[in-house]
Fold these 2 entries.
Entry 1:
Amino acid sequence: MALVVDGLSTGFLMALLGLSITLVFGLGGVLNLSLGNFAVIAATATAVLLGLSGSLLVAVLGGLLVSCLLGLVVDRSLLSLVYRSSGEQRTLVGIFTMLGLSIVLDGVMYVYYPSQYSIPLDVPSLTVADVTFRGSSLVIIAVSLLLIALLHTFFERTYLGGATQTIMQDETGALVCGISPRRMRTLVFIVSIAIAAIAGILFAASASVSPSSSFRLTIQALIVSIAGGVTSIAGTIFAGLLLGIVSTVAASTIGSSWSSVVLFGVVLGVIFVRPGEIV
Amino acid sequence: MNRDRLSLWAILGLFALSPLLLLTTESIYATRILSLIVIFATLATAMNLVFGHSNQLFFFVGALSGTSSYLCAIALLNYGISPWLTLVPASLLTGAIGMIVSYASARRKFGVVAISIITLTIQLAFRDVLIGAREITGGSTGLAFRGLSLGFLQDALGVDQFFVLYCLLLVLLFAVVGTYRWILSSRYGIALDAIRQDEEVAEYIGIDVLRYKSHVGFAAAFMIGLVGPFYAQLSGFVVPSMYSLASVDIIILVILFVGGLRTTLGPLVGAVGIVYANQTLSSLGQWRSVVFGALLIFLFLYFRRGVVPAARNAVEQRLLSDDRGTSPAD
């Protein structure tokens, strides 16, 4: 039972990461290969600020602010250049630009913050009927559920959310309706970075984070997103939960490095046999 | 066309004559740099074939070359089998991996996004297998690698093993470049062009897209597999970090974009510049990867066509303006 809860918490983290990929890809056709870097930067900034200020709230807000500002800079500079091309060309330009950015951010992080960081939450474990649940797992699940509910409200209830969905479905149609795709893309990119940042901070609450974690986080985000169908939000969340449970159960039975091999095997299998279009 | 062929033979001639230069300098450092140039030129040519000509973005060149290298190293250390015997079977295996990925992707009509994610996942899985099976692979410390040398040739010519290795690498490069030219001048070249321009139309006029794509996937992955063990021989060991995304795939992509995608000379010219730059910048440590990441972004945004097509254009422009200058009609 405790294992299932841990699996769910990993699953929610993977779902959040996958969601960030799905949002940006669905809206602009750009595959954010530097997503893991943003998550690691947010977690590192939070851990460093926690050491400086001593207040968890200040640290988390600071970590979010740092990563979102960086995201804004990237959106205004690099992504503006990427969006100048269209269709398949844009996808390709996006892949190489974001890959290059990921290498740059990785290098900078290795130079200035090469060590391992974690964020102690001080949430006590909860014991219900002889089963002990890790405090960090419960916090991860609670925060993720809240975040997903917020996103759902945003997409279904607000004008901006509706506009975003319109662009996802038909870019030209959205333009005709007077929606500016470029502005919405900036908004959604920042939202996706914020989601990745929260996922990174939550990840650092249950494990330690270093610059070398970023590639792995990016890959996890990608596989969740592609297993969920790349453009489907509900599919991404479902895929994240499923893969999270698979990887946690595998890790507890055969060890962590083999568990990721199993995970990758399952994902590759899912990608090749699942019905429906994948870009 | 003739001018292109002339410059191709000139550059290949320079590569072929380079061993003479090494014999006169006898510098181990120069031999090493030149060997790296040839290794990366060969890998970039294979990538040029699979990505440039058939739009299959293989992000696991590191994992493929690493797979054949580790298989050779393990066969030698555990069973005493010479890498000369395991080289081709191991490369056939990596070729098969490339073919399976290409076949399955073409069958499911995956685009460049799906193939890049699949191959990135395999790249990370490869690293995890190396760490997970550390009793066999040595984990992150790696294994010693030797055996891809030709002792009798060293003795007969009175040269050291790295010089012989360099000559072997050159032979491999010429074979790969030759195969690349041969594939593109055959009906494969025409079919690949058609598929790249419009896959559906190509299929409609009767081109077997599945077959062409998976054959190209096999050919490229086989070439990549062949290079790996020679790279290991040059280093004297195999470690996971040698075959990572950052140390193989990124370098190859930068080489391709600098040199020029879909040109025979591009990978050769790009490899000379980039491998040399990579060695010169090695004192920068982590900043080197920052430079390469920035270079990848810059090249792809502003200089996508590369040095070779740009030079070709410049020459043509000049010839055109010369013609105009001497022509009485103007």
Note: Chain B has a mean pLDDT of 90.
Entry 2:
Amino acid sequence: MAIISRGFSGRRTAADPKLPPGQYVTNDFPVLSAGPTQHLPLDQWEFVVDDGASALKRWNWKLFRELPAERVTADIHCVTRWSKFGTSWEGVSLDTLLADVKTDARYAMAHSYGGYSTNLPLEDLKNHQAWVVFRFDGHDLAPEHGGPARLLVPHLYFWKSAKWVRGMTLMTQDEPGFWETNGYHIYGDPWREQRYSGE
Amino acid sequence: MARTAILGRVTWRVGKAVALYDETASARTLTLEVPDWPGHVPGQHVEVRLTAPDGYSAVRSYSIASAPNSENRLEITVERLPNGEVSPYLAQELIVGDELELRGPIGGWFVWRPEQIEPIQLIAGGSGIVPLMAMIRSRTSSTSGAPFRLLYSVREPASVFYREELRSLADRGIVRITHAYTRAVPQDWSRPPGRINADLIANATFPSTLSPTCYVCGPTSFVENASGLLIASGHSAQRIRTERFGPTGDRR
């Protein structure tokens, strides 16, 4: 039974079917990171797919940018309760990056420059659900938003869209990443409000 | 980078406002009594839920300002945002005796634990002082001897939270404090108003050679600036923990 807050009416907007439960719409693009912004020279950047033992795929920036890129428009949802509609990105689909990878793995751990990590089921990275993006709103992705390249997995809470992404380790069993170890949900579906561990 | 935090499932609890205190013209500290509060680590936050008579509800996160204590009391300090949905209610409407729902504690990274013995450098911008205050208060009430320094940037002298308590903690040698002002300074202040710069970092914070852990909390632009200066002065990015709030002001 909820406690009624005397005199509280709230700032309501018409119910929007695009807005997951407990979220509000923002037009800003807030920045949330656990540590300092990483500034990465492009000539030192690489993206590596490995299986925990050895590298299966490796791209430097030049080879990565030669891969076919796509424009993506998506709504994004942060666990801190803001949602931003219609964000536009450009990047390489994980379908492309994982196309020639033969694996029995069912999960992946995305790794970032700076030490961040986040875990995802492999099936959430396929079928046009995930990209490594390098442009936002027509501009090169700013470092504070994860540039030169970040993961974009818009159907999950935005902490899964790792900034400064440098690669992915394929795993046969699910393991928690950084925020998943620090109290946040292992999967993070905004439509089921999977914000914190155990929800 | 990650460390395991033992965190149970967070459930909604009822907190009763037992004291209210205006920190500044726009910020108020709420002392909430939460009988079944499970305890917290300084730096963690709670979610507060307000519900209207027709069932509409809104939830926002607030850092905990108080140290863990045996009285099941929590303090949060709420800055009233001009277009806020929840903060004006908490900072103006709520009265002593009112109940509200909250859940937590949340977050296992931007925290200080009394087992940490290394020097601690705190850098706060505006209401970013709140979780850092919980750390300072916990340092006071624990047996930890970790050296603490605080660099606290505010708009003007009247914007300082916890003014008397911070002065008293500094006088007792618990924490060395440097205030900085971005818009207006006190009379006879030696430094003109302005953002934190390399000079201030060099003169008012622990040097990187002491390997402090740095906690930086404030608006995004503040955190970007301060953490960038720390790295430029030799601190390892691995030893800088950040918490940002507010928009970027820069849509790129």
Note: Residues 129-141 of chain B form the longest helix (13 residues).
